[in-house]
Amino acid sequence: MLRNKIAVVTGGSQGIGLEICKKFAENGAGIAIVDINPPEKLESAVQEIAQAGVQVKAYQCNVADSAQVAEVCKQILADFGSVDILVNNAGITKDNLILRMSEADFDAVIDVNLKGAFYMTKNFYRPMMKKKYGKIINISSVSGIFGNIGQANYASSKAGIIGLTKSTAKELAAKGVCCNAIAPGFIMTSMTTSFQDNEELKKSIPMGHFGKPEDVAALALFLASPQSDFITGEVIRVDGGMAM
Ligand code: NAP
Q1: Is the CB of 181 inside a 6 Å radius of any atom of ligand 1?
Q2: Has 154 been annotated as catalytic?
Q3: Spacing, Cα 89 to ligand 1 middle (Å)
Q4: What does the pLDDT look like over 184-220, one tens digit per residue?
Q5: How many angstroms does the Cα of residue 137 sit away from the middle of ligand 1?
Q6: What is the CATH number of domain 6-238?
Q7: Catalytic residue among 59, 119, 125, 154
């Protein structure tokens, strides 16, 4: 489904990002991972993805640093020739009640989750526009749709991602570039390990259980493929019905 396409996935060394890389690679896409983790950790992800027989390369980069992002995006375009798919997936949490949340923790989450996606999009905007083809997939969260206690920073960043998605979609729709957002609910990754056994939380999910990274990757594949060519500016939940 993605033969001859090149995908860039931020935060692609583990969790949802790694699963998206694997799914895209199985479907024929070359993969560029952009992740803050050191080369050793990126190497095991690269080997896992490369089992699909596609070109894979990892780049260590803090997406919150605009200069690093510009440098890495330039390098990716030089290494792969072009980019067809961008998945803005890198994200962090620094939860606390607003009363106790420091300005630094508010900024840190906005810088990675929202500004990181902006920087990446900015750098691939012109190449995709020139190519008259592109798929940008932003990973939001149900927190960005309905807010969450202790997550003013995170929910703001993920609500911001929805605004970024719709603005990008409108700016690039006539240029053949689609931009959509995925809003996951509770997914079993390192981000949620501390509350995966919380029965009260499970009760808040109509389907009664957490999702898997594969559930998000399946939708990402659809949004990256030609099957979704007439869909843009959309926000799709993968949450077992939680934010219904
Ligand atoms: P994860 O397992 O923590 O993976 C996130 C990846 O992004 C990690 O490899 C992380 O590195 C990397 N990263 C963090 N900061 C970065 C930076 N500044 N620059 C580049 N890479 C960076 O998280 P996940 O659960 O897969 O989450 C992926 C995305 O889904 C996030 O945007 C998250 O907000 C969103 N999401 C997750 C859930 C969920 O339930 N898991 C629900 C809704 C939305 P380190 O590990 O070194 O920090």
Answers
A1: no
A2: yes
A3: 7
A4: 999 999 999 998 999 999 999 999 999 999 999 999 9
A5: 15
A6: 3.40.50.720
A7: 154
C-beta 182 within 6 A of ligand 1: no
Does ligand 1 lie within 6 Å of residue 152's CB atom? no
Which residues in the chain belong to E strands, given as ranges? 6-10, 30-35, 56-60, 85-88, 134-139, 177-184, 235-238
What SS3 class is residue 139?
Answer: strand
CA 129–ligand 1 middle distance (angstroms): 28
3-state secondary structure of 118: helix
Which residues, other chains included, contact 233 with Cβ-Cβ below 8 Å and sequence gap of 6+? Answer: 165, 166, 169, 170, 173, 179, 180
pLDDT tens per residue across span 10-58: 999 999 999 999 999 999 999 999 999 998 889 999 999 999 999 999 9
List all residues 6 or more positions away from 95 whose beta carbon is below 8 Å from its beta carbon: 150, 151, 154
Taking a C-beta distance cutoff of 8 angstroms, is the pair 12, 21 a contact? yes
Contacts of 164 (CB under 8 A, 6+ apart): 114, 117, 118, 121, 138
Percent of the chain with pLDDT over 70: 100
- Could you tell me if the CB of 16 is within 6 A of ligand 1? yes
* Beta carbons of 11 and 89 less than 8 angstroms apart: yes
Tokens 């840190």 identify what position?
108
- What token pair was written down for 10? 């931020």
